[in-house]
Design brief:
Layout: H1 2-24, E1 29-37, E2 47-50, E3 55-60, E4 65-70, E5 75-80, E6 86-92, E7 97-102, E8 107-112, E9 118-122, E10 131-134, H2 138-141, E11 145-152, E12 155-162, E13 168-174, E14 181-184, E15 187-192, E16 197-202, E17 207-213, E18 218-226, E19 231-238, E20 240-246, E21 252-257, E22 262-268, E23 273-278, E24 282-290, E25 293-301, E26 308-312, E27 317-322, E28 330-337
Antiparallel strand pairs: 1-28, 2-3, 3-4, 4-5, 6-7, 7-8, 8-9, 10-11, 11-12, 12-13, 14-15, 15-16, 16-17, 18-19, 19-20, 20-21, 22-23, 23-24, 24-25, 26-27, 27-28
Length: about 350
């Protein structure tokens, strides 16, 4: 009996030690700042960063505005009005221009980054949505590109704009509405969930070269890429999962449980992690153990409806846009990425 009691006591002690160690283990993300967005109502879409000027641009879709935040002061310093459905957004430091895709106006509006004055509007972009910055093909076109996804069915594509003046340079047709897309070398990977595949486009040839089927998953929206290991990451909503593809073969390698209603996914190169935000009010953090193996490290609470996010490696900060909820104002949650343990 004494021996049995000792074994039980030892087991309980070891469990207590393990629990204490887990409690002391730091989380991968630490909340360091909360910035309120006064008067902003409705859904919030994507964000963009001016690293040098420490400004964060927030596409407040439901509010029909773009909110400009001074991160040093921790407050909104300007509101851009006159929009209907701001979705994708990007700031180009070399030209100090802000590109905003408006899905209801079917345009990409370009503003001066200093005065927020409208410079020009690129029209005929039905349901203009996500925006990406492409420096990989600058040699071909003489300037980095700002690419805008738009349209539906056969009347859809990516339109590349000159990052210096916003004028159109070329177009790549697609077979369905493009959600997230990523540039990797000569290729652009595009999520086309309505068609059930990932389109692989070549900017030089200006056309889709391949289509990778996404089997067993629907409503796959956000995307991220690890160019070093040639891996493509997709966020699925149905069912909620992180999907990992080999960009050499186009084959899906694995899937991992994730958060619900996701709209943004980021690969953190320095920490070998992936951050996924979901409208269910949770953040999923995945560890890249090697190119073929990934694990869900933890799920952290954020805020209901906080689907969109932005990781800025230059600042080691992760920004989450949280809409107003239960009488609480809309806000941006600012996290600092913690060292690996």
């Amino acid at each position: 009996m004494k021996r049995l009691f000792c074994l039980i006591a030892l087991g309980a002690s070891l469990c207590w030690v393990a629990a204490a160690q887990n409690q002391q283990r730091p989380t991968p993300l630490k909340l360091v700042q909360t910035i309120e967005l006064p008067g902003v109502t409705g859904r919030i879409d994507h964000m963009a960063m001016d690293v040098k000027g420490k400004r964060l641009f927030v596409a407040a879709l439901g509010n029909k505005t773009v909110e400009v935040i001074d991160l040093a002061a921790g407050k909104v310093i300007h509101t851009i009005n006159g929009l209907k459905e701001p979705q994708g957004i990007f700031y180009t430091p070399e030209s100090n221009l802000l590109f905003v895709a408006d899905g209801q106006l079917d345009t990409c509006r370009i503003y001066k980054g200093s005065t927020y004055e409208l410079v020009r509007s690129e029209t005929a972009l039905q349901d203009a949505d996500n925006i990406r910055y492409d420096t990989a093909h600058a040699a071909i076109y003489g300037t980095p590109l700002v690419e805008v996804g738009y349209g539906s069915g056969t009347a859809s594509g990516l339109r590349a704009l000159d990052s210096l003046d916003g004028k159109p340079l070329m177009e790549i047709p697609l077979g369905g509405h493009p959600e997230a897309f990523e540039v990797a070398g000569r290729r652009i990977f595009v999520n086309v969930p309505t068609a059930g595949y990932i389109a692989v486009a070549d900017t030089g040839r200006r056309r889709v070269m391949d289509k990778w089927p996404v089997q067993g998953f629907k409503d796959f929206f956000p995307m991220a890429v690890d160019e070093t290991n040639q891996r493509l990451f997709i966020g699925s909503r149905t069912p909620p999962a992180l999907l990992v593809f080999d960009t050499k073969s186009g084959k899906m390698l694995t899937s991992v449980e994730a958060v619900g209603d996701t709209d943004d996914l980021t690969y953190d190169t320095a920490h070998k992690r992936l951050y996924m935000t979901g409208g269910d009010g949770m953040i999923a953090i995945f560890e890249q153990r090697d190119a073929d193996h990934y694990a869900l490290v933890t799920k952290m609470p954020s805020s209901p409806g906080a689907r969109t996010s932005l990781f800025v490696p230059e600042l080691n900060r992760f920004y989450i846009a949280a809409p107003s909820n239960a009488g609480k104002p809309a806000k941006v949650l600012v996290y600092e990425a913690q060292p690996n343990t």
